[in-house]
Design brief:
The chain is an alpha+beta fold. The chain has a four-stranded mixed β-sheet with strand order 6-3-8-7, with helices on both faces. This is Nudix hydrolase domain-containing protein.
């Protein structure tokens, strides 16, 4: 596997022209771009993935349907499509991805200071009734996926469910969007 490089950003989310390896960007805490893709079905359920127990950040915790980094030179939509293919085995057209908003995650330090998330996270929504049985989950990335009712998801993010990656601002904004538009 080749090492992934990320474009380093300034405080306004603009590329600086510098690129660093994924490992170095997270070791130092350099600002970069990530993508988060939520899948919503016609039953008003969100698809969640359980991260592999071997992941550096938040192992074995439930997370966004699909999430990852924009590699150097990639647009957010290109990264969203690549991550969707890598993490759940789906190939979708650009039009399937509805851009919702961008969240700034400021210097989340984990793993005893060895890993720093410092990112702009572009959040997308995909409407799909895909069956879980049709998804292809790479075991080094994803342990399991599950459709979860929004009411149950609200309980989880309130600490009344299984362990979930802390994306508080994103969850709040996603739920606001879903209540208004869906």
């Amino acid at each position: 596997m080749t090492e992934e490089y990320l474009d380093i950003l300034n405080e306004r989310g603009e590329k600086t022209g510098e690129k660093r390896s994924y490992a170095e960007a997270h070791r130092i805490g350099l600002l970069h771009r990530a993508v988060h893709v939520w899948f919503l079905n016609s039953k008003k359920q969100l698809l969640l993935q359980k991260r592999s127990k071997n992941k550096i950040a938040h192992p074995s915790c439930w997370d966004i349907s699909v999430a990852g980094h924009a590699s150097s030179g990639q647009t957010s939509i290109e990264a969203a499509k690549r991550e969707t293919e890598e993490e759940i085995g789906l190939t979708l057209l650009d039009e399937a991805y509805e851009y919702l908003f961008t969240v700034r995650r400021v210097r989340e330090v984990i793993n005893k200071g060895t890993y720093v998330n410092n990112e702009f996270q572009d959040v997308f929504l995909v409407h799909s009734d895909i069956s879980i049985e049709d998804l292809v989950l790479p075991p080094d990335e994803v342990e399991e996926v599950r459709w979860l009712d929004i009411s149950e998801f609200k309980k989880w993010i309130a600490g009344q469910g299984e362990a979930i990656v802390p994306h508080d601002e994103e969850y709040k904004r996603l739920l606001e969007h879903l209540e208004v538009r869906h």
